[in-house]
């Protein structure tokens, strides 16, 4: 128990969270806010100092005021006239009355313009390549369609030749059939002629055979 009391007495006194009379906030919050503001201001000053570089190798800013440099990169004198290239159109005016200008960096502007030009060039190249591929595709489709039509034309010609050949074969069959029939009828006519001319056939049936002979002869002559 004694050791515990001595440890409490030896321990540092805890810091009281006292309210500030001006802001009404606790001291801890006020100090934290002050530290954050100081760090923010230090960062802004660092960025502002880093931005005060030679712009275009002719004009720069020292302590927020425009200066003009000679060829030897020495300060000739302070220029009271504002340089339009160093000011941005949308300058921000803060509540404390001090105007903080956003300085334009020509090198950054050139880099942006170069990037835009490269993007436009790449877009143009891609469009050209796309059009070339489209033209190549259309040419291939036309070639394939032309070959397909040629094959169809060959099929039609082959079909026509086959039909013509089949027609000629049928015609030849009919001619041979007709010739065979005529030869057969001639043989029958000869047999009838022999029978009619025979003396033994001269009877009551001779008129009938004569009519048959005449009819067959007329049919063969047609």
From TrEMBL:
Disordered: region residues: 15-39, 86-108
Basic and acidic residues composition-biased segments: 30-39
Protein name, entry field: Uncharacterized protein
């Amino acid at each position: 128990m004694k050791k515990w009391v001595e440890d409490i007495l030896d321990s540092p006194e805890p810091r009281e969270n006292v309210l500030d009379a001006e802001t009404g906030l606790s001291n801890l919050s006020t100090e934290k806010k002050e530290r954050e503001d100081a760090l923010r201001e230090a960062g802004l000053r660092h960025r502002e100092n880093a931005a005060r570089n030679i712009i275009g190798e002719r004009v720069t800013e020292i302590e927020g005021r425009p200066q003009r440099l000679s060829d030897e990169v020495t300060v000739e004198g302070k220029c009271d006239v504002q340089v339009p290239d160093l000011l941005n159109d949308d300058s921000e005016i803060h509540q404390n009355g001090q105007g903080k200008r956003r300085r334009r960096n020509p090198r950054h502007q050139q880099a942006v313009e170069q990037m835009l030009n490269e993007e436009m060039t790449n877009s143009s190249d891609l469009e050209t390549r796309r059009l070339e591929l489209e033209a190549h595709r259309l040419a291939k489709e036309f070639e394939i369609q032309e070959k397909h039509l040629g094959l169809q034309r060959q099929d039609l010609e082959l079909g026509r030749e086959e039909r013509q050949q089949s027609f000629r074969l049928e015609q030849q069959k009919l001619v041979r059939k007709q010739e065979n029939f005529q030869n057969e009828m001639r043989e029958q006519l000869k047999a009838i002629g022999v029978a009619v001319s025979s003396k033994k056939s001269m009877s009551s049936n001779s008129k009938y055979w004569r009519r048959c002979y005449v009819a067959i002869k007329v049919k063969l002559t047609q």
